[in-house]
Amino acid sequence: MHIYRSEGSDVAALSGVDITVRPGEVVGLLGPSGSGKSTLLALLAGLFQPSAGKVFVGDRDLAALTESELNRYQAVDGSLMLQGARRNLVPYLTIRGNVDFARQHAAKLGDEVPTTQEVVDLIGAGEIADRPLSELSQGQLQLGALAVALAPGPGIVLADEPTSALDHAARDRILDTLLDVNRRSGATIVIVTHDPDVAARLPRTVTIRDGRIGGEGRLGQEYAVVTADGFLPLPLHVREGLPPGTLVRLERDGENWRLVPEAGGLPGGGDDVIQ
């Protein structure tokens, strides 16, 4: 759970979220604006602590890390790509210069990190690596932001809307690069996106709605998810057919369950069955 506190009101951005991401997995976080997906990404990055509950990366409880351990996690193990390419880049450096700058801190910690050239080659940015950022397109800048995130050779990459404001060609190149990085390096990748075309290409998606897990997707098929506290959020296409206040019951039908609105519970009455 995470609550944003302000004078006069508290806003629960996340409530009862229970999610496991396996090492080497690619997961998309979906949901409307304000649903809590970027807050979850920030918690995974260790930018702040949850108001309740725990956030584990591997066997590490991020809230229990010392300041030096958290600095190491953020500098080496977990890379966060902020939304908007320029927020990730030093404006007076080239892509190559930005990568070199980003990897310096990790190298000082004694870790074996990729060379700058290896990172440039990994994302296929050789032709633009030494050009001023002012000469680059939005898609090329986003490629540079990805290079910065990969500079320390992280085990987990957290990307907040990495394809937003891009044309289709640039969007596909960024997504292709992220998936290729996952295949080649084994890095875990968590992507916040609102783009259904991006979500359709991801092997697993998690929909967050009203601060809770609202469903999961596997290869284009959407599933409802029973949460740890027994909450069962209905998929959006089902909720659209059930106005607020509708009474429903669950009935066992062999190996399947049926969701049955009570007679009179829907406008016009009836006993429609949703399977």
Automatic annotation (TrEMBL):
Keywords: ATP-binding, Nucleotide-binding. Transmembrane segments: none annotated. SMART domains: AAA. Coiled coil: none annotated. GO terms for molecular function: ATP binding. It comes from the Bacteria. InterPro entries: AAA+_ATPase (IPR003593), ABC_transporter-like_ATP-bd (IPR003439), ABC_transpr_LolD-like (IPR015854), P-loop_NTPase (IPR027417). Residues 1-235 form the ABC transporter domain. SUPFAM superfamilies: P-loop containing nucleoside triphosphate hydrolases. The keyword Nucleotidyltransferase does not apply. This is ABC transporter ATP-binding protein. It comes from Nostocoides veronense.
